[in-house]
Design goal:
Elements (H helix, E strand, L loop, with lengths): L2 H8 L3 H13 L32 H7 L3 H8 L6 H8 L4 E3 L14 E3 L2 E3 L3 E3 L12 H11 L3 E4 L7 H7 L4 E5 L5 H13 L5 E4 L8 H4 L40 H10 L4 E6 L2 H9 L4 E4 L13 H12 L5 E3 L6 H9 L4 E4 L1 H10 L1 H21 L13 E3 L3
Parallel strand pairs: 4-5, 4-11, 5-6, 6-7, 7-8, 8-9, 9-10, 10-11
Antiparallel strand pairs: 1-12, 2-3
Helix pairs in contact: 3-14, 6-7, 6-15, 11-12, 13-15, 14-15
Length: 404
C-alpha cells in the first residue's frame, strides 16, 4: 500500500470530522455555549432543599447554579479589583462581640420603628435592580418574601417590573429608591408617580458615581463588553446619554450636587434619605440640607475601588449625626452577628442586598423569607449571648472595634 493510500486508511472519517466540527462550534466562546460548570456544586449528588439552608451563605451556590454565569456575576461583582467588596466582609472580623451575662433568647425583643413603620427586627432589604434575572417572580417575589418575614423592602428606582405591579404583589411596608434625573421636570414626574403609590420613604442614591467592573472587561466570552443586564442601574428617563464602554462608567451619574438635592427636597413629601454616605462631613451636610435619614453605603463594594468598608466609617458618621436623624447601613452583611455589630456601633437598621438576591435566585419568595428569618434568628442568638435583650441595650459597650 502506498503512502497516500495508507494516510487515507488512518485519517478521520467524514462522520468523525463532522462530529469534531460540531463540537468546536458548540464550544465556541463566541456563541456563549459553554458556561461555567458551576464548580461550587460539582461535588453534590443533589441540590439541597430550602429546609436544609442553615446560613445565608448556603443560598449562594444554589443561586449560582440556577442561572448563567453572566447574570450571576451582575450580582456578584464589585468595582475595579473588588478590594472594597472584600474589605466589606473583612471588616466584621475586626469587631469583637463582648461577652455578657446571657439571657433567654425568648426574652429578646428587638422591635424597632422607622418613620412610623414598626418592624419586628431592624433588618430591611436594600434596593437592587433586575430581579427578573434571579427568578420569574422578580421583584414581586422579593416583596412577598419580605412581607412574609415582616421586613421593609426598598424597591429599586428601575426594577424589572412596573412599580404598580410590585406594589400590588404584597402588602408589607415599602420604601422606594430614586436615582437622580438631571431634568427636574422629569424628576418631579417620576417622584410624583413613586409617591402616589404610597411608599413610607424615598431613598435617593448618590453613590456609584462611576464604576469599573474588571471581571466584566476581562471576560473572554463577551470581548470586553460589560455583561451588566440591560436596564440595570435605574437611571431613568432624562439621563445624559450613556456612551458604551467596556468599564460601565455611566456618564449619567457624574453631575450630582447638593443644590440638586435641595430641589428634590422640595418635591419629596415623605421622609427623604440619602444613600451612599461614607464620610462624617457628608453626613453633616445631609442634615444641613434637610435630609431625614442617612444610609451609610458603598453600594456593596460596587461604587469605588480601594474605599473603606461601611462598618469602619459608621462610628464617625454616627458621632457626627449625634442622633438628629436615623443612620442606616448596608454593604457586606451576611450574618445576624454582622447586624448586631452595626447596631452596637450606632446604626438604627441594616439593609441586605446580595443576601436576599441569593435567596430569590435559589428558591424564589420562600428563599427571600428564609434568608431574612435566618438573619433574624442569628441576631436574636447574638443579642442573647451578649446579654442584650432590647434594641436600646445594644450599644458600643457590646463590642470592641479593632479597625486598622
Amino acid at each position: 500500500m502506498g503512502r497516500i493510500e495508507n494516510r487515507w486508511r488512518h485519517s478521520m472519517t467524514r462522520r468523525k470530522a463532522l462530529a469534531a466540527l460540531a463540537g468546536m462550534v458548540a464550544g465556541s466562546p463566541l456563541l456563549l455555549a459553554q458556561q461555567d460548570p458551576h464548580g461550587a456544586l460539582r461535588g453534590h449528588r443533589r441540590v439541597p432543599g430550602i429546609d436544609e439552608m442553615e446560613t445565608v451563605f448556603d443560598f449562594e451556590p444554589i443561586c449560582f447554579a440556577n442561572m448563567p454565569l453572566a447574570l450571576f456575576d451582575y450580582t456578584a461583582h464589585g468595582d475595579g479589583s473588588e478590594f472594597t467588596l472584600r474589605r466589606n466582609r473583612t471588616a466584621f472580623e475586626w469587631v469583637d462581640v463582648g461577652p455578657g451575662k446571657a439571657v433567654d433568647p425568648k426574652s429578646v425583643d428587638l422591635a424597632s420603628e422607622l418613620f412610623g413603620t414598626r418592624m419586628a427586627f431592624p433588618i430591611m432589604i436594600a434596593p437592587s435592580s433586575n430581579h427578573r434575572h434571579l427568578h420569574p417572580d422578580a421583584e414581586v417575589g422579593t416583596y412577598k418574601g419580605a412581607t412574609a418575614a415582616g421586613t421593609t423592602m426598598v424597591v429599586a428606582s428601575g426594577p424589572s417590573l412596573p412599580h404598580e405591579t410590585i406594589v400590588a404583589g404584597a402588602a408589607g411596608p415599602r420604601w422606594t429608591q430614586y436615582y437622580p434625573q438631571q431634568d427636574l421636570g422629569l424628576a418631579r414626574e417620576t417622584l410624583t408617580r413613586f409617591q402616589s403609590l404610597g411608599p413610607h420613604a424615598i431613598v435617593v442614591t448618590i453613590d456609584q458615581q462611576a464604576s469599573t467592573y474588571e471581571r466584566d472587561a476581562h471576560d473572554r466570552n463577551l470581548g470586553g463588553v460589560s455583561r451588566t443586564p440591560a436596564g440595570a442601574g435605574g437611571g431613568g428617563r432624562g439621563d445624559a446619554a450613556v456612551r458604551p464602554n467596556p468599564y460601565r462608567i455611566s456618564y449619567a451619574r457624574l453631575w450630582y450636587s447638593w443644590s440638586y438635592l435641595d430641589s428634590l427636597r422640595k418635591i419629596i413629601t415623605v421622609p427623604m434619605l440619602v444613600k451612599g454616605i461614607v464620610t462624617a462631613e457628608d453626613a453633616e451636610l445631609c442634615i444641613q440640607h434637610g435630609m431625614d435619614g442617612i444610609i451609610v453605603s458603598n453600594h456593596g463594594g460596587r461604587s469605588m475601588d480601594y474605599g473603606p468598608s461601611t462598618l469602619e466609617v459608621l462610628p464617625e458618621i454616627v458621632a457626627a449625626v449625634r442622633g438628629r436623624v436615623p443612620v442606616l447601613i448596608d454593604s457586606g452583611f451576611r450574618r445576624g452577628s454582622d447586624v448586631f455589630k452595626a447596631l452596637a456601633l450606632g446604626a438604627r437598621a441594616v439593609c441586605l442586598g446580595r443576601a436576599t438576591r441569593w435567596g430569590l435566585g435559589a428558591f424564589g419568595a420562600p428563599g427571600v423569607q428564609r434568608v431574612l428569618e435566618i438573619m433574624q434568628a442569628e441576631l436574636v442568638h447574638t443579642a442573647a449571648s451578649a446579654g442584650r435583650s432590647t434594641l436600646a441595650s445594644i450599644d458600643k459597650t457590646a463590642v470592641k472595634a479593632n479597625f486598622i
